[in-house]
Design goal:
single chain; alpha/beta; binds 2'-deoxycytidine-5'-monophosphate
């Protein structure tokens, strides 16, 4: 029997570029597992902060990572990261995590720690018989899944992004996070070579979804 068709969709972009709403909608429409790689960085950040570890203390970061066990729990079509058997919740969106996450994400050991877990999300989707995975983040199409079937890069004007976060009621310095995420040495935020780049400024969410959904539908039809 030939393998069932399986597609990987990578959605990268800066903070508040519209990745999560788009990825969720695609996951519903095409029955893809949705995995938010930003939430993996947030969960590790929240846990290290809880343990009193700061991003500037590399030996403490290394020691704490060695003791962390990651798992996945699927709720609907969303894959939620578990740390030591506990699912993380709203605490990963706190102001403290917003302020610290880019600093932890710039540490190569933190990135290496999460890479295998993130690649393993494809197996989580397959085990559930789903036809694919949609993962959002900063380096999905460049580092995690450079061979993804479809890779998108969403971006928007800084003023539009600040307005979106404010509307969501989050305190989040998106411009500062984008600056740190784009300038780090390891896997910086950038449009992956060959990715479809989409400026979401002035587009409604539905317009963004339709633009991204069209090539996915074509790919699934051809599979
Ligand atoms: O998508 P988000 O804003 O929740 O991501 C939180 C942080 O995680 C972001 O500031 C940078 C980091 N991140 C990353 O470095 N690589 C990814 N693939 C996803 C997120």
């Amino acid at each position: 029997m030939p393998d069932k068709p399986f597609i990987i969709v990578a959605i990268d972009g800066g903070a508040a570029a519209g990745k999560t709403s788009t990825a969720r909608a695609l996951s519903e429409r095409f029955n893809l597992l949705h995995s938010d790689s930003g939430s993996h960085y947030r969960a590790v950040t929240a846990e290290l902060l809880r343990r009193g570890v700061s991003a500037g203390d590399l030996p403490a970061v290394r020691a704490a990572l060695a003791a962390l066990r990651l798992g996945s729990r699927v709720s609907g079509r969303t894959s939620l990261v578990e740390i030591d058997g506990r699912t993380t919740g709203d605490e990963i969106r706190s102001a403290g995590v917003n302020a610290a996450v880019s600093h932890f994400a710039a540490i190569p050991e933190v990135r290496a720690f999460l890479l295998a877990y993130q690649r393993g999300q494809a197996a989580v989707a397959r085990e559930r018989g789903m036809p694919g995975l949609v993962m959002e983040g900063r380096d999905v199409g460049s580092v995690i899944f450079p061979g993804a079937d479809l890779r998108f890069y969403l971006h928007a004007d800084p003023s539009e992004k600040a307005r979106r976060r404010a509307r969501e009621g989050h305190h989040d310095a998106v411009a500062e996070r984008d600056r740190i995420d784009s300038s780090r040495a390891t896997a910086p935020l950038s449009c992956p070579v060959g990715a479809i780049s989409l400026d979401t400024t002035g587009l409604t969410l539905n317009e963004v979804i339709e633009k991204v959904a069209a090539p996915i539908a074509a790919r699934l039809a051809a599979a």
